[in-house]
Amino acid sequence: MSLNFCGCVRRFDISLGDIKPARQIFDSLRDRDVVAWTALIVGYVRNGLNDDVLELFRLMIKEGPKPNNYTFAAILSVSSTTERRYCDISLPQHMV
Length: 96
What we know:
96 residues, 5 helices, 0% strand, globular, Pentatricopeptide repeat, RNA binding
């Protein structure tokens, strides 16, 4: 399955509010690049799944590629709407 196809499927599933198939495709990818990570994070943001956003971002920091500006923009939008106690991510140390 090509990455372009996966990207289309992720965007389609995410826009319909069904994030589960997008996550399954993401989990099946061997080489997850920053675009794949950020697409899923943005999908969670758009669907109001703030806990999942923060969990996935923590996983990206631990296992994935370095986040880019789009990733940080999505995380900051969650940080502004999530209670401080749930947002224990120190963004400045991860920013470029």
